[in-house]
Structure prediction request, 471 residues.
Amino acid sequence: MLNPEASNKLRSIVGAAYYREDMEALVAHSYDGTPMLQSLPDGVVYPASTEEVSKIMAVLAEYGIPLVSRGSGSNLSGGTVPLQGGVVMVMHRMNRILEVDLENLTATVQPGIITAEFIAHVESLGLFYPPDPSSMRISTIGGNIAECSGGLRGLKYGTTKDYVIGLEAVLAGGEVIRTGGKLMKDVAGYDLTKLLVGSEGTLAVITEATLKLIPPPKTKKTMLAMYKDLYGAARTVSRIIESRIIPATLELLDNPTIRVVDDFAKLGLPHDMEAILLIEQDGDPEAVERDIAVIADICRSEAADRTEIAATPEEALKLLTARRSAFTALARLRPTTILEDATVPRSKIADMVMEINRIARKHNVTICTFGHAGDGNLHPTATTDARDQDEVHRVEEAFAEIFEAAIRLGGTITGEHGVGTVKAPYLEWKVGEAGIDMMKGVKAAFDPHGLLNPGKVFAKSARKRVVLQHG
Ligand SMILES: Cc1cc2nc3c(=O)[nH]c(=O)nc-3n(C[C@H](O)[C@H](O)[C@H](O)COP(=O)(O)OP(=O)(O)OC[C@H]3O[C@@H](n4cnc5c(N)ncnc54)[C@H](O)[C@@H]3O)c2cc1C
Prediction:
């Protein structure tokens, strides 16, 4: 329970309706998109302006109360679970598009705007904001920035970090800082904008963002390549990149994912294929035709059973939407779905797919794989049941080995979902002890009393590395 004096001060900043301590509000903000993780906050606050955020932060600093910033709570790493109680700050009331600057091709937004609404708005003005996490209909731009989210278009266009050029943020004591701006070039001091992108709410609260917009591609074409051999599909990914073609989208779905996505979206996908690649290229019409022809040749040379090109933009959109629903569709299989995002260099995608399958067999667990294969970013997804402790333990062991395998192949423990709580024990595997110390130094400079999203990113102790099993 919060100090009543602090509660009263928070209530007087935002108004009684926007500071809540009732059980309904506390339970609703005790969990996020991550399974098997829950912890109650002491209060939930809904600010409407930077000024309110600043005043709230000053009160929290005065009373030493932890703060968890929250967009839509769709993250998959336990990033918004208030592990140490305190206050959850929900950013949904700060959801305005403040400006679209057509001369500079930038947009300035508040953090609570829903990603898909922002994308639709800039598209209505003939502009393009590429970062498109599959969760974009529910996620906020603030959450995307704090996680540095990626999406289906990440391969060609990059991820959120490539589009954030300026930020307004409130520091732990309530001070407001501005970084970057409507600038394509800016090397004035350390790049605090890039530091805050992906900082998972542990360094500051983002209250405004200036985003780069680009002209939309003139045309696009979407194709499916279907394989009886998963390894052939994975190898195709590396071969396309090697051929110096960068498709806009290059996604892989394995057989179990194809089946559930098809049952869910009713697309008529073949259930007897081991893998499907969903490939989209965009740009000038001639270049798109040429690239798609080369890609189709590569697919055939890697023994694709067949390739199909979407006949209409509506059909293409249906395929992309179906891919975006993969997680939701898999979640229908068993009571608990654990989605991970191990990432490897693109040349290692086939090796990683084989490793995931070998590890799943070894631990006798079901792991379906899909993901942004062109980015080397796979989403091995375990379908399990939280009530079966033995199976959950085997799933956890399997994921530890999957992360180990990703690192051994030159990859990382997370490509886009962030470290949060669930990956914290593995971070040292990726960045080493000195890396952790350096990151803790940055954290201490921003948040000397450890009030911002405590318990995230840094684990009390690193997980012991499992012994590697090759073959
Ligand atoms: C079905 C599904 C599909 C998904 N697909 C993708 C995908 O394709 N790509 C991808 O990258 N992710 C994906 N995700 C994960 C998730 O949607 C993203 O991480 C998303 O960016 C989170 O946005 P959010 O608004 O829900 O943020 P939240 O979950 O509320 O917060 C995420 C993190 O950001 C911090 N935060 C939020 N707002 C602020 C702020 N204003 N200032 C400072 N910190 C803040 C929080 O403290 C937390 O650490 C998916 C999730 C689901 C459930």
Notes: Residues 467-471 have pLDDT under 50 and may be disordered. The chain has 15 helices and 16 strands. The two ends are 53 Å apart (CA to CA).
